[in-house]
Design goal:
about 180 residues, alpha+beta, Beta Polymerase, domain 2, 2 domains, four-stranded mixed beta sheet, three-stranded antiparallel beta sheet, 9 helices
Length: about 180
């Protein structure tokens, strides 16, 4: 989807990196290693996104760190587009509201770190979650979105321990 409107693969990778989880911070050499691309191409895209105000930066030592600018007026729109691109929004629509007494859902794994992945890792927190129905729904959604879904279901007491093991865990949804 994004590839048809944004022709730069590097720009798409950067948008995924910084707008899936707005807490993600990174610097040029780290991005170069992660993307496996030329630093000049990455630097050019970082400069464009920073000049547009979509990325904020700060210097620590000899490294310039970049992060999504959550105050930008288009931040929420880009965040939502990235979620749609990765199909996380479909999981929210088709799974979370139908599996029982669910309190929270977290995105973990590579997507939470801003790395595009064919696997969506989730952590569900709730009591009396119908695990059989959850497995059935996830299987159906996997076919629709052409991505694999891995998940763990925990209760409130186990939540803190699991979230600690995923430092980039991103809270996707919680009951009101």
């Amino acid at each position: 989807m994004l590839e048809s409107i944004i022709t730069s693969k590097t720009r798409i990778k950067l948008l995924l990196k910084f707008f899936l989880n707005s807490n993600t911070r990174s610097y040029l050499r780290n991005l170069e290693a992660e993307f496996g691309e030329n630093s000049n191409a990455i630097r050019a895209e970082l400069t464009r996104l920073e000049k547009a105000g979509l990325l904020a930066s700060d210097v620590q030592g000899n490294k310039k760190y970049y992060q999504a600018n959550a105050k930008h007026p288009m931040f929420n729109d880009i965040h939502n587009i990235v979620f749609k691109h990765t199909k996380v929004d479909e999981i929210l629509d088709k799974v979370i509201h139908k599996v029982g007494d669910l309190q929270r859902a977290y995105l973990t794994g590579d997507l939470a770190k801003g790395k595009n992945s064919k696997v969506i890792d989730l952590l569900f927190v709730g009591e009396n979650v119908d695990r059989t129905y959850l497995a059935h729904l996830c299987s159906k959604v996997e076919k629709l979105i052409d991505r694999r879904i891995r998940y763990v279901v925990v209760n409130d007491q186990e939540e803190e321990d699991y979230v600690k093991t995923f430092p980039s865990a991103l809270l996707l949804w919680q009951t009101a």
